[in-house]
Amino acid sequence: MPTNNFVSKYLMMDGLPIDKSSLFKEPDSGMEYAEFFEGRDPRMNFTLMKEGDEFQPSSDFTVPHSSNQRTGYMIRKYSDASSWLNQKSYIDRPVLRYAEVLLSYAEATYELEGQIGDEDLNNTVNAIRERLPEVNVGTDSNPEYKSLPQLTNSFVSANGLDMREEIRRERSIELAFEVNDYWDKIRWKTAEEEMPKDIKGSYLFTEFFDNDWSESTNVDEDNYIIVQEASLRKFDPEKDYLWPIPKNQISRNSDIEQNPGWDSN
User: What pLDDT is stored for residue 200 in this prediction?
Assistant: First the structure.
């Protein structure tokens, strides 16, 4: 299931993170689930289910169910009603998308040089953003359509952003649920920060209770669902960035040493 640890990475349509954007509205008891998707990077709507999205042959999606979508989010990416009916999908599984090639180039350029020029950003991150549709950030009666702004050095500087973090954010959002996120955390050496955190789900919207959610659902002080508390999670940076070498491989060559921290396993 998608977590809010991930969902909170989606930018608003002014190109800013939710903690910097005036477009972001903190959820409250009067907000509907679908409103939480408004004014966000269009990929949030393409990636996660919201009310009215194609779901099953007999019905569209409404709000998450407590047992089937216990984080309060459900993946929409690569799903359609016919796949649900047949319990199989004929959508091609990506092995290497062109977007990943572009994002890898942008990341490698920044890591190699400690900076990245606007031309390289235009050929990578912004080329990916250009295919995204405009989003209405106004109202139905008074619409105001907006495109996701380009990522530039001046935009990053003017808004107090970090270029490395924005390139990494773009990768996380674009390649969501394509089996990259864990490995990115490992190679970025951020797993020791991210893995031990509370795993949080969606804000517990009032309308969830019509779909079998309980008043006793574990939530934090801001009413976001706590799926797993940090006390139950751990990541040892001295050990967990590497996996153990199989004992049968070590037995074949006495010069091979077990990775640190795995000797007793």
Answer: 97
